[in-house]
Design a protein that fits this description.
The chain has helices at residues 3-6, 10-33, 40-65, 67-72, 74-95, 101-108, 111-123, 129-146, 161-183, 189-212, 223-251, 253-260, 263-274, 281-298, 310-314. It is mostly helical.
Length: 321
């Protein structure tokens, strides 16, 4: 079997989705590892400058071809850039200063559920009893995680700042996923990704200037930091998107989305291997609760928009999360 035929097989789809999830899981590890090296907005700006410059030669023709649609929908694209890149990733890197990798990835798994709730209110999509029960179980898992297994701490609301930041990114992801469904059909995937990437980079500049006191400065970058930035730009941004795209086209959006929930264990494994971050019993139990709730929620039924083109409405899982 030649490679061109292999790319469209079920086996290739599973390989693509595993690679996409693995690359995305490293995003949280890198955030944790860079927390003491670079400020959050600086890290995010450098990451997306690199990603945009690397992807530009491959996408500028499509962007120019569809420039009228880009101009026509610039407001929605700006919302996607802010919630998917500028604010989202900056919050992730800021959270890495005060919370652990597994915490970040566990809380991030709430994004699909919040997206479903947002879709219900905006588009009146039906959510059954299984979905509500799953949300309750996952919410209990998050509460168990952020309280360190001591639920009475909820009375005093002493959450780690990083946990609250990651919770805010799940809300951003919900906004992103519902907004992208309104414009995805207007663009090719190349144009959509490149336009959001360029706008997100532009909107990061004010955050960077606020962080540096209004000065354009290039911080000293060690070899390790440079390697992390290249990883974030190439693997956790560009290739993650491309692998997710291919996998959803082969497997279908509902089946591919199930693999997104392997994010916490994969993140924990990478963190343990790369930065020697320990995993405790509370995190394991809360992770099991969150994942159990999500699978119960999914048992309510796959998204109704999952046929041909389902990726266009749900591909955001591979770009903003």
């Amino acid at each position: 079997m030649n490679f061109r035929c292999f790319r469209h097989t079920q086996t290739a789809g599973y390989i693509f989705i595993i690679l996409g999830i693995t690359f995305w899981s490293g995003n949280f590890v890198a955030a944790r590892g860079l927390a003491q090296e670079l400020p959050p907005a600086t890290t995010n700006l450098l990451r997306w400058i690199l990603a945009s410059l690397i992807f530009l030669p491959f996408g500028w023709r499509a962007l120019w071809r569809e420039r009228k649609a880009v101009v026509r929908h610039w407001k929605v694209l700006s919302l996607l850039a802010l919630t998917g890149i500028s604010l989202y990733d900056t919050a992730v890197f800021l959270a890495g200063q005060t919370t652990g990798t597994l915490n970040m990835s566990l809380i991030a798994t709430l994004s699909p559920l919040l997206t479903s709730l947002t879709a219900q209110f905006l588009y009146k999509e039906r959510i059954g009893h299984s979905m509500y029960f799953g949300i309750a179980v996952s919410s209990f898992g998050v509460a168990y995680l952020v309280t360190g297994g001591q639920l009475d701490r909820l009375l005093s609301l002493h959450f780690a700042p990083g946990d609250l930041l990651i919770l805010s990114t799940t809300c951003m992801s919900a906004v992103y996923n519902t907004a992208v469904s309104r414009v995805a059909k207007e663009f090719s995937q190349t144009t959509l990704f490149l336009s959001i990437s360029l706008l997100g980079t532009l909107y990061l500049v004010p955050m960077y200037l606020w962080e540096t006191g209004g000065r354009f400065t290039v911080p000293p970058i060690s070899g390790g930091v440079a390697a992390s930035l290249i990883y974030l730009a190439v693997l956790a941004s560009i290739l993650c998107f491309l692998f997710w795209n291919s996998a959803v086209q082969i497997l279908g959006a509902p089946k591919a989305m199930l693999f997104y929930y392997t994010l916490p264990p994969v993140s924990a494994l990478i963190a343990w291997l790369v930065i020697d971050e320990p995993v405790n019993r509370t995190q394991l139990l809360s992770g099991a609760l969150i994942l159990a709730g999500i699978f119960v929620a999914l048992y309510d039924g796959a998204p109704q928009s999952a046929g041909k083109g389902g990726f266009r409405r749900q591909h955001a899982m591979g770009v903003a999360q």
